Amino acid sequence: MELNLSRKTITAVIAVLIVLALLGGGYFAWNRGLTNRTSPAPSMSEPAFQAIADTFSPNISAGEAAWEKQVCANMTSDGCTLFKGLYADVLWNAAQSGNVPKAKFTYVNVAEKVSDTSQVWKLSTSDSAQPWLYVQVGQDPASHKWMLMRVLFDQEAQARYGRP
Questions:
Q1: What pLDDT is stored for residue 23 in this prediction?
Q2: What pLDDT, on a 0 to 100 scale, did the predictor assign at position 31?
Q3: 31 exposure class (CB count in 10 Å sphere: 0-12, 13-18, 19+)
Q4: Is 54 exposed, middle or buried (0-12, 13-18, 19+ CB in 10 A)?
Q5: Residues 24-70: pLDDT tens digits?
Q6: What residue spans of the chain are helical by DSSP H?
Q7: One domain, residues 61 and 22
Q8: Which of 122, 117, 115 is nearest to 146 (CA)?
Q9: Which CATH number goes with the domain that contains 70?
């Protein structure tokens, strides 16, 4: 049995195969989330960055209440409640005894998009003992600015995102 195919037929078959391969590859990429564009890095003027800096740089001479107010000014209301109830006393006591390392923070990426208005950011730090910091931020509905919600505990960050 002999099969004779014209050049036109061969070209049409190859074109169909290429289209199917492109569609299949596109579907695969879309299904795996590979088509999601990364959002640009947030501006360092976002309130969340100021809250993080203030959290780890308490002004001892101003007093604990003033420091808490300064940090909470750039946090969500739930974040402020959590900060005051869980973190503030520990950080304040550590700062009074000189045990809060002064570190600079740099945005690395969005580690997780929790919802349309909440993300977990991965930050690098200048502290060699603690090179990474993960923080959850929420977008203020009125200003669309990113506000600090909380700093993730080391164990939680490692369990969720592994080692950097």
A1: 79
A2: 61
A3: exposed
A4: buried
A5: 777 666 665 555 555 667 888 899 999 999 998 888 899 999 999 99
A6: 7-31, 47-55, 64-72, 77-82, 88-96, 154-161
A7: no
A8: 117
A9: 3.10.450
Q: How far apart are CA 11 and CA 13, in angstroms?
A: 6
Average pLDDT value over all residues in the chain: 85
| Same domain assignment for residues 61 and 139 | yes
When divided into structural domains, the chain yields a total of 2
8 A C-beta contact, residue 147 and residue 47: yes
**Tokens read off for 50:** 């100021």
What integer pLDDT is reported at residue 135 of this predicted model? 95
Instruction: Tell me, yes or no, whether 14 and 91 share the same domain.
Output: no
The encoded tokens of residue 74 equal 């750039």
Range of the domain at 8: 1-36
In 3D, which of 83, 78, 129, 79 has the Cα closest to residue 103? Answer: 129
